[in-house]
Amino acid sequence: MSRKIKKGAFELFSSPPGREKRVSFQYNPEQLTRIQNYNDGTNSISESIRFTLILHVDALPERDDPDELPVSIYPQLAALERMFEAQTVRVSATFSGMRIGRKPSVLAFTWGQRTVPIRIQRFVIKEQVFNTELEPVYATIDVQLRLMTAKELANSEIGLEMLRNFRKHRLTSAKKA
Question: Cβ neighbours of residue 111 under 8 Å, at least 6 residues apart?
Answer without folding.
Answer: 8, 32
